[in-house]
Amino acid sequence: MNESNPVAGKLRQCFTCLRQKTDFVPKLALVLGSGLGDYAEQMKTEAEVDYHEIDGFPVSTVTGHKGRFLFGRIGDVPIVCMQGRVHYYEGYDMSDVVLPIRLMRLAGAQALILTNAAGGIREDLCPGDLMLIKDQISSFVPSPLTGPNLDELGERFPDMSQIYDKELIRRMELTAASLDLSLKQGVYVQMRGPQYESPAEIAMCRTLGADAVGMSTACEAVAAKHMGMKVAGISLITNLAAGISKEPLSHKEVRERADATAPKFRRLVSGAIVNIASGLL
Ligand code: HPA
User: Core-most of 7, 33, 42, 43, by most CB within 10 Å?
Assistant: First the structure.
């Protein structure tokens, strides 16, 4: 990798540091969103690396977001799980926000499942629903690919016409059906945050074609797709987006709803990981 590029240099440094802690090679990477962190209890953990232990790694500041990589297995599938992600609104450069995604790819992960908490914009998306992301709008945040291209990771002008992998979507749907779980589909829009949106902004998002809104994920999906990863995304709808409900939005409400929906979410993700890994990875 081109070490004269600071983004590449930092990534290489973080990778070297990670490899000093563990030689575990995951096939699949999983990012746990707000309130979903306790999913990690489902896995047989073989190694744990706290973000603080990786020199140069951006460390999350949001309360309730634990910051560590867990390496282990769901069924027989070797996975790496990010317990706590880095958000753009915390003040990091976009290249730092997606550094963990790039690191998991370098560590071996070929597929990525992104999860998040999101506000429902489309009228049939209610608190407690799970929504498979079929496409996204990332235009409100800077591209993680800004600056010199890291040719070792991917091409300068990567295609984004199918960010979310069709086969992963199909396997997610099959898993949900076999577990008798309702799984909706929609377009996710990433807003900058950290403030929740205004009703006028939500009206704009709806006009643009967005079904659910959050403050993460889309930039990570762009970075992963740039590197050729197969990407899937699930939004847990924690609230009605601003202006749809009469109630003001609160982080507490978002967390409580995420916690209440966690069992359903855990079943879907575990089933999907085993399903995705069989024959695909
Ligand atoms: N807006 C943005 N981010 C969110 C929301 C929301 O309504 N709910 C959960 N994360």
Answer: 33
Q: Which residue has the tokens 């709008």?
A: 137
Pocket test for ligand 1, best of 88, 122, 133, 197 (most atoms within 8 A of CB): 197
Residue whose pair of structure tokens reads 């929504």 in the numeric block: 131
Residue range 206-233, pLDDT digits in tens: 999 999 999 999 999 999 999 999 999 9
Comparing 19-33, 131-145, 239-253, the range with the smallest average pLDDT is 239-253
* Residue 235: burial class (beta carbons within 10 Å; 0-12, 13-18, 19+): buried
The confidence band for 61, taking pLDDT boundaries of 50, 70 and 90, is: low
Residue 194, preceding bond cis, omega within 30 degrees?
A: yes
Half-sphere CA count of 77, side-chain side, radius 13 A: 27
CA–CA separation, 10 and 134 (whole Å): 32
The protein residue whose alpha carbon is closest to atom 9 in ligand 1 is 118
pTM of the model: 0.95
Determine the longest span between alpha carbons in the chain, in angstroms: 52
SS3 label, residue 88: helix
Helix (H, G, I), strand (E, B) or coil at 137: strand
CB 133 within 8 A of CB 235: yes
Active site residues: 34, 65, 87, 89-90, 117, 215-216, 239, 251
Among 140, 238, 240, 257, the mutation site with the greatest number of ligand 1 atoms within 8 A of its Cβ is 238
